[in-house]
Amino acid sequence: MLLHRVTKLAASRPSRLLRRLKTTLATDTNLQEKVVTLCRHRGFVFPGSDIYGGLANSFDYGPLGVQMKKNIQDAWWKHFVQSRTDCVGLDSSVILNSKVWEASGHIGNFTDPMTVCKSCNSRSRADKLIENKSDMTGIPDAGGLTCEEIDALLAQHKISCPTCAYINFQHVVTTMRRRLPFGVGQMGKSFRNEISPGHFLFRTREFEQLELQYFCHPTDSDNWYTLLPHVVEPALGTGRVMLAMLLDAYDEEEVNGRYGCGHRKGGDLMMDGRQRTVLRLHPDIAPYKFAVLPLQSKGVLAEKANEIYVQLAKLASCDFDVTQSIGKRYRRQDEIGTPFCVTVDFDTLEDGSVTVRNRDSMDQVRVPVATLLSGGWTWQP
């Protein structure tokens, strides 16, 4: 599961995830273009302010995108907050008193060195120029500064993160009756004056963050640094995690000898040499876990399928699709990453079972409707 790998990376060293994602974006532009096209075509992400000419580097999450983003946030929340007895949640204000930013050192010291070209007057961040040159000249990243130099500057200017977990620390201690050490997790929107936005969702001016801050007593802090030397503030950008998962899950494969399986009533046909696009997302992350597909768009099959859909939607995110042939609907669900398609056919009316198709293997099994709606069903080929 990519999210598990992502959370492990974030818990150890967040920059490692970013470096891996940067490498993919820099070396495989064709993959990025395909993912962007799929996202716009299938309702994951739309250009912001599109009907009024758009706004550069602004994106709206469509129905599938917002559901996938919520699934990522839910998985993060469960991993870092809900499943831990030493962590609590927080949802703080975005607009803060200016004194907060003064106390954090951001107003006085938090700046990005800029360069201005005398010929074209274009502006660039100095550290980005150095980063682009680093492979050829041997100059290190991050503006040519070592970690020791960066740490020295942070200590010299006493720059700290101004997030509201610090501001609300005493409130959390008082209301939740917590004793150190404990963590505070929160997620919400952030904004940054990004000079060089780009790479789709990777670098934007408006983004959402998932952040956990862990507090320990000052006299005991050295012990925690010894145990977890890299964990200071595990934070993830939701858009970046989503983009990483989409790039990782995107796949194109030749369908040789079948499209799904040979069960004719399930709607699968022989399609030699045809290519299908698949998003191999984990079921917990995919926008829809199930798609209910009646063989007929009207009549008793559609009515029965709708009954199943209403009940199944109470258990998991679910889609109901009646347009076009069953084969095209399978392919459409493959493209948006739906793990399981539930086909309602004429046998359903007789024996009370449905055909469940697996997205990745395209295998199908018959499953009683009662078993599917019990909430405990798992795929068993």
From TrEMBL:
One Pfam family here:
tRNA-synt_2b
Superkingdom as given in the UniProt entry: Eukaryota
Gene Ontology MF terms in the entry: aminoacyl-tRNA ligase activity; ATP binding
Report one GO cellular component.
mitochondrion
Which keywords, in A-to-Z order, does the entry hold? Aminoacyl-tRNA synthetase, ATP-binding, Cytoplasm, Ligase, Nucleotide-binding, Protein biosynthesis
Which residues does the UniProt record annotate as the domain Aminoacyl-transfer RNA synthetases class-II family profile?
Answer: 178-338
Which BP terms from GO are recorded?
A: mitochondrial DNA replication; small molecule metabolic process; tRNA aminoacylation for protein translation
Q: What is the protein name given in its UniProt record?
A: Aminoacyl-transfer RNA synthetases class-II family profile domain-containing protein
